[in-house]
Design goal:
By secondary structure, the chain is α/β, with parallel strands linked by helices. It folds into two domains: 2-121 and 236-263, Rossmann fold; 127-233, Dihydrodipicolinate Reductase, domain 2, CATH 3.30.360.10. The chain contains nine helices and twelve strands. The strands form two sheets. Strands 3-2-1-4-5-6-12 form a seven-stranded parallel beta sheet, with helices on both faces. A five-stranded mixed beta sheet has the order 8-9-7-10-11. Helix 3 (78-91) links the parallel strand 4 and strand 5 (95-97). Helix 1 crosses helix 8 (237-250), helix 3 runs parallel beside helix 4 and helix 5 (127-143) packs parallel to helix 6. The chain is elongated and about 60 Å long. 41% of the residues are buried. The mean pLDDT is 95.
């Protein structure tokens, strides 16, 4: 059994991942990391995740983790993610990262750590969403510049970053297919007398409400018709299953940066 550490173990995604690990052949929970001020520090990670006590306390420092483990799954925040990746890089331990909201500078640091330890990095671990990325690029390539592109993403009221990493990745897939620079084409908000829509715009709009797990709609609107590609997440378990699948896949790989497209052989 491959030993797995979950960072962000008491969060929505962390507890879902621990529950999926419990029923996954070949992987087992070996450690649980949380922030140093988390109210559940010291509690049993299994109990926190509602699977029964596992004898694994929630800790806040790397020194308290097992001396050996095979992979780390990280759904935390950008600062914590980089600390965890540096720890993995120093050990050559594989990592799976689903943290969103990283700045360009933080992504550069992540890429450097991946040069020293194999790392799967994706804004969304869902199998369906990663298929959507491929469909987005294929559709944009066929339709070309004759169709306007809009993305609407909807998440729960507690989500901190906007737009979602998934929405940005969708926009990037379309921009690449159309030969556009997303930094010039992206439009994140509209208000007042904005004038006629430009041909190069890729609209990315954000909704935050209630306990919505996640919904992304990619709209192509052209003369006399429109095409909509939509993914709706019914629970976090599908993201957790994707993360665990990535963890199984990355163990034994050469150092480098990988994506869910690599894991799912969608490239």
């Amino acid at each position: 059994m491959m030993k797995t550490v979950v960072a962000g173990a008491c969060g929505r995604m962390g507890t879902a991942i621990i529950r999926v690990l419990e029923s996954t052949e070949g992987l087992e929970l070996a450690g649980a990391l949380e922030s140093e001020d988390h109210p559940r520090l010291g509690q049993d990670a299994g109990a926190v995740s509602s699977i029964g006590e596992k004898g694994i306390p929630v800790v806040s420092d790397h020194a308290s983790l097992p001396s050996r483990f095979d992979v780390l799954i990280d759904f935390t925040n950008p600062e914590a993610t980089l600390r965890n990746l540096e720890f993995c890089a120093d050990r050559g331990t594989p990592a799976v990262v689903g943290t969103t909201g990283l700045t360009e500078e933080q992504k550069e640091a992540l890429f450097m750590f991946a040069d020293r330890a194999p790392t799967v990095f994706s804004p969304n671990m869902s199998v369906g969403v990663n298929l959507l990325f491929k469909l987005a690029a294929s559709t944009a390539s066929v339709l070309g510049n004759a169709y306007d592109v809009e993305i609407v993403e909807t998440h729960h009221r507690m989500k901190r970053d906007a737009p979602s990493g998934t929405a940005i990745r969708l926009a990037q897939a379309v921009a690449d297919a159309l030969g556009r620079d997303l930094s010039d084409s992206a439009v994140y908000a509209r208000h007042g007398m904005i004038g006629e829509r430009t041909e190069s715009e890729i609209g990315i709009q954000t909704v935050r409400a209630g306990d919505i797990v996640g919904e992304h709609t990619l709209l192509f609107a052209g003369p006399g018709e429109r095409i909509e590609l939509t993914h709706r997440a019914h629970s976090r378990d599908n993201f957790a299953r994707g993360a665990v699948r990535a963890a199984l896949w990355v163990i034994g790989k050469e150092p480098g940066l990988y994506s869910m497209a690599d894991v799912l052989e969608l490239k």
